[in-house]
Design brief:
The protein is mostly helical and 56 residues long. It is 55% helix and 0% strand. The chain is globular, with a radius of gyration of 11 Å.
């Protein structure tokens, strides 16, 4: 579900690379690693702010 929701705010062709790129906001982890560890709450928060247009 995270992948589908994020595809609403991120271009489909960029999504794979984004999921595999370490992110400082995720303590240097890749988003896919966060998902694998069961910590998708922070990704949902990021998706929420991207959808809303509000600064995070």
């Amino acid at each position: 579900m995270v992948k589908r929701a994020s595809s609403e705010v991120i271009k489909q062709e960029s999504l794979g690379a984004l999921l595999q790129t370490p992110d400082a906001a995720l303590d240097g982890l890749k988003p896919v690693e966060v998902i694998e560890r069961g910590g998708s709450d922070c990704l949902w928060s990021m998706i929420y702010f991207l959808r809303s247009g509000l600064p995070s």
